[in-house]
């Protein structure tokens, strides 16, 4: 079967760019799922700011649920890339079949459990009496689309890892376009407000899911979804490797939830709701940084995994350098935008001058460390791509601990309005540690790969 990219023979620099750019653009487009919803919601006459705070509370909960897609997708796709590098297509096919079954089961279980706990979760995670109604309306409908969201995101990883980066981008683009079109229809034409935004999102996720599954069940990819040959040991290994990206995303959102809880606790219902609205907009901007950045480092994992399986450390090292350089270039551009034109981004969500002024300041503080953050993503996703889960999890969790410590102590020591400094503090410290660890262990890891494969 012909693929867009030959992981075995194509020049590394070209491979990195051809896989990274579509994945980055796909994640840029994916950001519009949340940004478009929040943009329309923030501009609802009379209730926009409060409704936006309510949806902001739902954001990390929804993303935490969605992280299960990466538990299976990013856990299974590097393993499949390694098997393809070893020319073991039977094992690669077994991995895909097991991942499809595992993700389907997890989607159903998560939907049921989330419905049972959603009311308490919203209150625990920062909802006030003023924002609860909007948060509950939004999350109730979004949860109905859990299976479509998880399957479209998780199984898309198995399209990208086979070299079809453009197909993966098109699946995300389809969902985003549907969302952009349907949002104003359901929100304003049908007068459904926040519920309309949620309905539009679910329908868009259904469209993406249909596109992804149709491709993976079709004849074009070398490895297609099949039924049977299920093995708990295969699923277990996927879950172990996927634990790192899952924890990265899940704990990122647990930390955001912690920020929301601290804001509501120390800010009270008045200042707290205002700060929550600002934090929602700040997090929307950060999604435009972290999701495309993850597209660059995650979309190129297949190069590392394939060559790790093929025992070619020289190509792994070249790819790692190009991936890091591309990631640094992207975060540098986003840093410049964050510190020169953030007001134009904020005005998309609200025209209230008090909210605009506070949020512009917060974006500049929150993004102080995003340039070196590129190296954190490159290091962690690089180790995940080669199946070295322990190192990836350790480095990722270290960053979360620093962030959590800042979220707990900064409001107490300096006041709740300084809570936005938690992000740059954790970025600078964690990157310094991750880069140091990489210098110490990277050559040994890729050298071991080459030695093992030469001896086999």
TrEMBL record:
It comes from the Bacteria. One of its GO terms (cellular component) is plasma membrane. The chain crosses the membrane at residues 15-35, 50-74, 95-118, 138-160, 172-192, 198-217, 238-262, 274-298, 319-341, 361-385, 397-416, 428-446. It is a multi-pass membrane protein. Keywords: Antibiotic resistance, Cell membrane, Membrane, Transmembrane, Transmembrane helix, Transport. It is found in: Cell membrane. It holds the Pfam family MatE. GO terms for molecular function: antiporter activity; xenobiotic transmembrane transporter activity. One of its GO terms (biological process) is response to antibiotic. Belongs to the multi antimicrobial extrusion (MATE) (TC 2.A.66.1) family. MepA subfamily. This is Multidrug export protein MepA. It comes from Lacrimispora celerecrescens.
């Amino acid at each position: 079967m012909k693929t867009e990219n030959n992981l075995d023979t194509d020049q590394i620099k070209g491979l990195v760019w051809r896989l990274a750019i579509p994945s980055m653009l796909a994640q840029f487009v994916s950001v519009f799922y949340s940004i478009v919803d929040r943009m329309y919601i923030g501009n609802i006459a009379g209730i926009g700011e409060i409704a936006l705070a309510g949806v902001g509370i739902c954001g990390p909960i929804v993303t935490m649920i969605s992280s299960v897609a990466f538990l299976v997708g990013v856990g299974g796709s590097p393993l499949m890339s390694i098997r393809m590098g070893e020319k073991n297509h039977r094992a690669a096919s077994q991995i895909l079949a097991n991942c499809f079954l595992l993700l389907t089961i997890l989607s159903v279980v998560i939907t049921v459990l989330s419905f049972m706990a959603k009311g308490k979760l919203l209150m625990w995670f920062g909802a006030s009496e003023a924002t609860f109604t909007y948060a509950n309306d939004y999350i109730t409908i979004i949860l109905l689309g859990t299976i479509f969201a998880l399957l479209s995101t998780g199984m898309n990883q198995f399209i990208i890892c086979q070299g079809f980066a453009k197909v993966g981008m098109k699946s995300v683009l389809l969902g985003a376009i549907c969302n952009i079109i349907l949002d104003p229809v359901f929100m304003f034409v049908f007068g459904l407000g926040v519920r309309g935004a949620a309905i539009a999102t679910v329908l868009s996720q259904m469209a993406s899911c249909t596109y992804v599954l149709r491709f993976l069940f079709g004849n074009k990819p070398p490895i297609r979804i099949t039924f049977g040959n299920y093995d708990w040991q295969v699923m277990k290994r996927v879950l172990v490797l996927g634990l790192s990206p899952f924890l990265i995303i899940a704990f990122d959102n647990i930390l955001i939830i912690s920020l929301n809880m601290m804001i509501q606790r120390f800010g009270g219902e008045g200042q707290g709701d205002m700060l929550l609205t600002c934090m929602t907009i700040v997090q929307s901007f950060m999604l435009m940084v972290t999701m495309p950045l993850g597209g660059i480092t995650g979309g190129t994992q297949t190069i590392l995994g394939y060559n790790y399986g093929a025992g070619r450390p020289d190509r792994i090292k070249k790819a790692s350098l190009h991936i890091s350089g591309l990631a640094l270039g992207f975060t540098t551009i986003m840093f410049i935008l964050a510190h020169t034109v953030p007001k134009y981004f904020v005005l998309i969500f609200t025209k209230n001058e008090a909210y605009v002024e506070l949020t512009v300041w917060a974006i500049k503080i929150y993004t102080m460390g995003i340039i070196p953050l590129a190296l954190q993503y490159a290091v962690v996703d690089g180790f995940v791509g080669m199946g070295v889960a322990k190192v990836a999890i350790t480095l990722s969790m270290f960053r979360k601990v620093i962030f959590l410590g800042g979220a707990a102590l900064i409001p107490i020591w300096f006041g709740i309005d300084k809570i936005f400094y938690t992000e740059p503090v954790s970025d600078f410290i964690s990157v310094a540690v991750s880069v140091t660890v990489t210098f110490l262990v990277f050559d040994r890891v890729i050298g071991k790969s080459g030695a093992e494969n030469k001896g086999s």
